[in-house]
């Protein structure tokens, strides 16, 4: 694993473009949290009849758990932000998360109910579309270096 990380760090595009490097880190962090989000969603919707019917509630629970871990990883690793005003950043982060969640939930529900797309494919598509919005808002607003 360390060899892979070292190879990625030494790529010329990563060295040349720090914004791209942060985007890659953001995607890795998001990927880890997305796996957790999906695991919670699948666990709830496949094992509990209530959440199978009310899948948007299961989606919300998974997103909240994933977003909480995402904040810490983005602050410490992705953007290496040492600002001590964590409560202000956390509030901004949740504003972005809720904004993204509204878009995510709408897209997710639309794809499942109107397009009749399989729920897991709908989650993937929704997550990818919202990822770009969240990256820019987190980079330039939540974790900006003053």
How would you portray this structure in words?
The chain is mostly helical and 146 residues long. The protein has one domain (2-142). 85% of the residues lie in helices and 0% in strands. The protein has seven helices and no strands. It has helices at residues 2-9, 12-16, 18-47, 49-53, 55-78, 86-113, 119-142. α3 (18-47) packs antiparallel against α7 and α5 packs antiparallel against α6 (86-113). The chain is globular.
List keywords for this structure.
146 residues; mainly alpha; 7 helices
- Overall mean pLDDT score? 88
Poorly predicted sequence stretches spanning 5 or more consecutive residues = none
Regarding quaternary structure, what we see is single chain
Overall 3D shape: globular
Domains, number: 1
* Number of E strands: 0
Q: Over all CA atoms, what is the radius of gyration?
A: 17 Å
Instruction: Please give the count of helices.
Output: 7
SSE pattern: HHHHHHH
Topology:
Layout: H1 2-9, H2 12-16, H3 18-47, H4 49-53, H5 55-78, H6 86-113, H7 119-142
Task: Describe what is shown at a glance.
Helices cover 85% and strands 0% of the residues. The protein contains 7 helices and no strands. The protein is globular, with a radius of gyration of 17 Å.
